[in-house]
Amino acid sequence: MSLYYTLRDAERWAAFSGDYNPIHFDAAEAKHLGMEDVCVHGMRAMLEVKLALSQALEKQTLSSAGLLFNCRLREPVLCEQPYQIALSESQPNGLQQVSGTLRHAQTQALSMRGKLGESHALMLAPATRANTLGREELSTLFEQFQTVEPQTAPQWSFYDAVLFRQLVNAPETLETVQRIIAGHEAARLSDIFRLVRVVQTHHETRFSPLLLEPASEGSACEPLHYSVLPTLVMGEKEAGLVLVAGIQAWRANHPLISVSATLKTGPLAE
Fold first, then answer.
1. Which residues contact 238 (CB under 8 A, 6 or more apart)?
2. pLDDT tens track for 91-117
3. Domains and CATH numbers, the chain
């Protein structure tokens, strides 16, 4: 699978996610923050990896009660550059698993390495604060998501993107941001993206095998309940922090999906 991202991809993802980090739009700002050039949103570039892995796993006979996707983001994916996805299949401990890499088509530099395979059934952590995404809001997000990903994405990929969006804009993460960078003009976790270089290093999603089916407005836009998990913060502001944030969702008391994202910041000045 060959890929080529443009500024239009960044604009569509920003409209969906609310992430207008200048490193995805402004070459001078990207270089100021240590990037080689304008780069693609990590979650945006991950969509094609998730789609390729899902299509490959669908062809296998699955017996587990849960599925696990994990991805390591190694290098920024640059705009106006050619990339390609390569897949391989394996059966660790008798379980079906598909692995994929996203590499620069010319240099073969590795940007992402992802895996999708069978796992144990999803178990949710106790929720201290529950939120709900209603049908109308999900329908709006689904329409925006379709402009981002024109191919028919699996339902879990849509929920994964929606929950990451909720995670970086949630009131619960606001509390973490205020503790970390008190005095700065930041009202939510996503605001850090405009203040300092932030890179996503890992992403993990657990979900029900039922969510491998293609996303449609009818199935994907039923009201969804979710809760944001406590954010783990490691490191020192002067050297840079590592944030591990999580979110989980369910419907009618049935666990659907959980998402964990690891973000690494540059030094945060006082």
1. 267, 268
2. 999 999 999 999 999 999 999 999 999
3. 2-265 (3.10.129.10)
